[in-house]
Specification:
Helix content is about 65%, strand content about 5%. Strands 1-2-4-3 form a four-stranded mixed sheet, sandwiched between helices. It is elongated and about 70 Å long. The two termini are about 25 Å apart. Its main location: membrane. It comes from Kitasatospora cystarginea. It is a multi-pass membrane protein. GO terms for molecular function: metallopeptidase activity.
């Protein structure tokens, strides 16, 4: 049994587990290399660089769920406030034999959902009021099973860490360039070192960000297909999830562009990307597989379950 499914009945996905390990290894290698470049170029400032980079990484990992919740406007809700939502999550968690995550709702007309958290014990599943208003109970069950599979497979934590390392490289670059850490030694050496650092650090930072961006996009697309598969197999109703996907994607396209632009930085976490009908993200840049790919996979699962 794969590591991702040891604590739940969600279908194991060795492909997802392998991709997560490779992504984290490569991005970790990038980050260590980037920190090493900073240490070499900034010399005397290396203890501060290690302290800042390590501190920011730990803070992001430890508080990732709270940071994401606040950014997306999620608020915790009780079973008394949303009995159907809690009831569906209770039933799915019992079916999957996994701990119940915190439940949240975001006051947003865009129909969507997301999950975040560093592990199943510290996870949150959030749906928007727009999603609750538009979906039938069996469609909502499919979406919630999809999000719970992200928690069970722990790919939420990997995506959070992987995405943040690229951002962290940019933050460290700004600190190095504008924090007065360039140089050391006599003035001539100082000027020479500063000139080299001013040139090399931004280039290395951009390279780190670009590679981490592409790696997270590749993982993100695969994990969405894995979550669709796991949700369909757990509930036994791939058609309900397909119906929810079709409805949510169509309704999102009708949301005002201004609201969609505000949501787009968090597309990697959403059940469906916040894109208007006119926007077409290239496959290389997209956080999600196409709707056609997702529906085709669910149709195959439906046929298999029929047999």
């Amino acid at each position: 049994m794969s590591a991702s499914s040891q604590h739940s009945r969600f279908a194991p996905d060795r492909g997802l587990t392998g991709r997560m390990v490779i992504t984290m290894f490569l991005i970790g290698l990038l980050y260590v290399g980037f920190t090493g470049v900073l240490i070499v170029l900034l010399r005397g400032a290396w203890p501060l660089i290690v302290l800042i980079s390590g501190g920011l990484f730990v803070a992001q990992f430890w508080f990732s769920d709270k940071i994401t919740e606040r950014a997306m406007g999620a608020r915790p809700v009780s079973p008394e406030q949303y009995p159907q939502l809690h009831g569906t999550i209770d039933r799915l968690c019992a079916m999957a034999d996994m701990p119940k995550p915190r439940v949240a709702v975001a006051d947003n007309d865009m129909p969507n959902a997301f999950a975040t958290g560093r592990n199943p014990q510290n996870a949150v599943v959030c749906v928007t009021t727009g999603l609750l208003r538009r979906l039938e109970p069996e469609e909502l069950e499919g979406v919630l099973a999809h999000e719970l599979s992200h928690v069970a497979h722990r790919d939420v934590a990997v995506m959070t860490i992987a995405g943040f390392l690229g951002v962290l490289a940019g933050m460290m670059t700004r600190i190095a360039l504008y924090g007065g850490f360039l140089g050391g030694g006599n003035r001539n050496n100082n000027d020479s070192n500063a000139a080299i650092a001013m040139l090399v650090i931004p280039l290395v930072s951009m390279l780190v960000y670009a590679i981490s961006f592409l790696l997270t996009r590749l993982l993100s697309r695969y994990r969405e297909l894995a979550a669709d598969r796991a949700a369909a197999q757990l509930t036994g109703r791939p058609s309900a999830l397909a119906s929810a996907l079709t409805k949510v994607t169509g309704q999102i396209a009708a949301i005002p562009s201004k609201d969609l632009r505000q949501a787009q930085p968090y597309n990697a976490f959403y059940f469906a990307p916040a894109l208007s009908a006119r926007e077409t993200a290239s496959q290389l840049m997209s956080t999600h597989p196409t709707l056609e790919q997702r529906l085709a996979q669910l149709a195959r699962i439906s046929a298999q379950l029929g047999h």
